[in-house]
Write a structure and sequence with these properties.
The structure holds 2 protein chains of 2 kinds.
Chain A: H1 15-29, E1 33-37, H2 41-44, H3 46-52, E2 57-59, H4 64-76, E3 80-86, H5 90-103, E4 109-113, H6 132-135, E5 142-144, H7 149-161, E6 166-170, E7 192-196, E8 201-205, H8 210-222, E9 227-231, E10 234-236, H9 240-249, E11 252-260, H10 265-275, E12 282-287, H11 298-304, H12 309-325
Parallel strand pairs in A: 1-2, 1-3, 3-4, 4-6, 5-6, 8-9, 8-11, 11-12
Antiparallel strand pairs in A: 5-10, 7-9
Helix pairs in contact in A: 1-3, 1-7, 4-5, 8-12
Chain B: H1 2-14, H2 50-75, H3 80-85, H4 87-97, E1 112-115, H5 121-130, H6 171-184, E2 194-199, H7 206-218, E3 223-229, E4 232-233, E5 236-237, H8 238-241, H9 247-253, E6 257-261, H10 267-279, E7 286-291, H11 315-330, H12 337-345
Parallel strand pairs in B: 1-2, 2-3, 3-7, 6-7
Antiparallel strand pairs in B: 4-5
Helix pairs in contact in B: 1-12, 2-4, 2-5, 2-11, 4-10, 6-7, 11-12
The chains are: A alpha/beta, B alpha/beta.
């Protein structure tokens, strides 16, 4: 048996490892949970799950289509399967996810590891910043991109308690235990206002970018600009009510996502606002839909795609300056 | 509304017929071989009931083909080639092999039957209706908006369908996961088996072989992969477009125990093979290759890719098919001639529910 290093629970902040622990915890409580691995377990964090539940990890080998199909079959025998592979490889099982899992409304919880820019320099083949374009348009599917480890664990639990297909984007970088507020409770389909300082600017974020949004908010506050940060862990169904509430109160919005600026969060926001005829200017932080994300250190990638808090501040200031010119 | 339609159909059937026969009263000439489809009833060739089993399966296969012609013509939709090549297999499976309960389609002790070549679902819908998962008259609305009988099956809409599908190559993997789940759940008194009927052209899909690799690795001897080897895919012949030969060797190399029906339309051979399969499980997944003929028993469909996707376009054509089926099977099996004539009379191409102000035209497949 392959030997893997099991990172200590209180020494790692990487969401993938905490996911391994959280899922292992849940499996003690819900004995129908079963994880399915396509030869990536020590990368995805499932090796931690395997450490605690060796008999509850099914290995299908390097076969992503079969990963989802086998999980679908297991769910039909009353199991709660968590198939897990790189988010980028959702491109290989998209049809299984669409037809077999979502169309049949099966109780399968797909874990997409390494979403967006954080792939440990794996390059364009492994970076997944376009996939939400289709994943967010699959009926029956709930799509969640948690922003911190507390939220991730709560979201996993919610998915076990609610039958039906789920898709999670589990980011590879380190995240805080709790980015939101003391006593926060994740709810499927609900966004959350993380901070609200009498708002000029609204930041709408998902996933790990809650951290970037909060830093940007602090920087803007130092310049005397009020910012409200709304975090949307559930991308589908999208919490439009929270967005409409924000749009009423701010003069511009900036969206932040670990995905390209088409088909993901920015598109959700733009569609929702356009549908109500709300004319708030919206800027997008995210990767370029026309680019393959080439190999590079994450700092260089974030610089190239202007995804740091400084870029958020700049974008917000641009909007505010334009407004004052008019 | 449904009862009204039945009445009008009956009246139509009377027109021009000397003797009235309700084409939807199947009990006139067929009933399920087993009284209780929850139970297996082993019949070996020396048993007294053996001839009756074969006759019942043959009649069922005839009915599957005939009602499927009616259903596809009414729906202006369908895949006759695959529906006809699988008819005997479906007949033997539902009449003899599978344990199921139409009154309780979710009965947890049932055998699982997946149709992976989902385009051949008209044949499956017919057999489900004959076993009373839903009224047989409903087949008329196959493919109509809101009918619950989708072009490719939807498990949330149609009782008896185990999983939704239509994109080929996916369901073998689901069957593997299901068989694995049954094993993980531990021994049960019913010793449940998962059957998956796969198209031969479907075996061009790589995901089929991913599933086979996993089945062989996990030694799932509660999985029976049936390959309907009718030699024809949608637009051509397997041997010319993309051959799957040597199929037996491939399956053996994937660690399957392989059975082969020399004639997949011979119900006796199928009954004997399924008796063997159930009795002789050897710690390996089971493959059954059915040597069949695409479009079997309708002359112009046989071995003809042009009838992979297409339904008869008018009542006359459907009538010719129904008559051919009756001449070959109905007559020798003692089905009254009035049956196929009445079924022809009952054809009514279901119109769309709505008009179309823009006169957009799409022709029948």
């Amino acid at each position: 048996m392959a030997q893997f290093i099991i990172p200590k629970r209180d020494e790692t902040k990487e969401m993938r490892y905490q996911m391994g622990y959280a899922l292992a915890d849940l499996a003690y409580e819900y004995d129908r949970i079963i994880a399915v691995d396509a030869d990536l377990r020590s990368s995805s964090g499932l090796h931690i799950f395997e450490h605690f539940h060796p008999a509850k990890l099914v290995k299908v080998g390097i076969a992503e289509q079969n990963l989802i199909a086998v999980a679908a079959g297991l769910s039909q025998e009353g199991y709660i399967p968590f198939p897990c592979t790189f988010d980028a490889f959702s491109r290989r099982f998209m049809d299984q996810l669409y037809v077999t899992v979502a169309y049949s409304n099966l109780n399968v919880k797909v874990l997409g590891a390494y979403p967006g820019l954080f792939t440990g320099k794996a390059g364009a083949t492994h970076q997944s910043d376009k996939e939400l374009g289709l994943i967010l348009r699959i009926p029956n599917l709930t799509v969640i991109e948690p922003g911190c480890n507390l939220e991730m664990a709560q979201a996993l639990r919610s998915s076990v308690e609610k039958p039906g297909p789920f898709y999670f984007r589990i980011v590879r970088c380190e995240v805080e235990y709790n980015e939101i507020f003391e006593g926060y409770k994740f709810e499927i389909g609900k966004g959350v206002t993380v901070c609200d300082a009498g708002a000029d600017v609204g930041l709408v974020c998902t996933g790990y970018m809650i951290k970037t949004a909060k830093i940007a908010a602090q920087k803007l506050a130092k310049k005397g600009i009020g910012v409200r940060v709304d975090h949307h862990p559930t991308l589908k169904p999208f919490d439009r009510d929270l967005l409409y509430d924000l749009a009423k109160r701010v003069s511009c919005i900036v969206t932040l996502e670990n995905h390209c600026t088409s088909g993901g969060l920015f598109s959700l926001v733009a569609e929702a606002l356009a549908a109500k005829g709300i004319g708030v200017p919206v800027g997008a932080i995210g990767t370029d839909p026309e680019d393959f994300i080439h190999t590079g250190h994450v700092n260089d990638l974030l610089y190239r795609y202007k995804m740091t808090s400084d870029d958020v501040v700049e974008k917000a200031l641009d909007f505010l300056n334009q407004r004052s010119k008019v | 509304m449904k009862t009204q339609m039945t009445k009008s159909t009956r009246q139509e059937a009377r027109v021009g017929q000397e003797r009235y026969l309700d084409p939807f009263d199947v009990s006139l000439f067929w009933k399920p071989f087993r009284e209780n489809t929850r139970q297996r009833y082993d019949v070996l060739p020396f048993h007294a009931d053996y001839p009756e089993l074969l006759r019942s399966c043959e009649v069922l296969a005839y009915l599957i083909r005939s009602y499927t012609v009616w259903e596809m013509t009414c729906g202006a939709l369908g895949h006759p080639g695959g529906s006809f090549s699988e008819a005997e297999c479906l007949a033997v499976l539902f009449n003899y092999v599978l344990r199921f309960d139409p009154q309780d389609p979710e009965w947890p002790m049932r055998d699982v039957f997946y149709l992976s070549k989902c385009h051949a679902v008209p044949g499956l819908y017919t057999v489900l209706a004959l076993f009373r998962y839903f009224p047989i008259q409903k087949l008329k609305f196959y493919g109509a908006w809101g009918s619950g009988l989708e072009s490719h099956p939807d498990c949330l809409m149609t009782p008896g369908i185990e999983v939704s599908g239509g994109s080929l190559g996916q369901i073998p993997g689901v069957a593997v996961g299901r068989a694995l789940g049954i094993r993980y759940n531990g021994p049960d008194h019913n010793d449940r088996i998962v059957y998956v009927l796969i198209g031969d052209g479907e075996c061009n899909e790589g995901s089929v072989w991913e599933a086979f690799m996993a089945a062989g690795h996990w030694k799932l001897d509660n999985l029976v992969a049936i390959i309907d080897y009718n030699k024809v895919e949608a637009k051509g012949f397997l041997s010319q477009d993309m051959s799957i030969e040597p199929l037996v060797d491939k399956l053996k190399a994937f660690n399957f125990q392989v059975f082969e029906a020399q004639n997949g339309h011979d119900v006796a051979e199928l009954v004997d093979i399924f008796n063997c399969i159930i009795a002789q499980r050897r710690g390996k997944p089971i493959a059954l290759i059915l040597n069949t003929i695409k479009g079997k028993k309708v002359r112009e469909c046989q071995y003809n890719p042009n009838w992979h996707t297409s339904a008869p376009r008018d009542v006359e054509k459907a009538g010719i098919w129904l008559e051919e089926l009756w001449e070959q099977d109905g007559r020798r099996l003692g089905i009254p001639k009035e049956f196929h004539l009445a079924l022809k009379q009952a054809i009514e191409i279901v119109p769309p529910a709505h008009g179309n102000p823009d006169e957009i035209v799409e022709r029948q497949a």
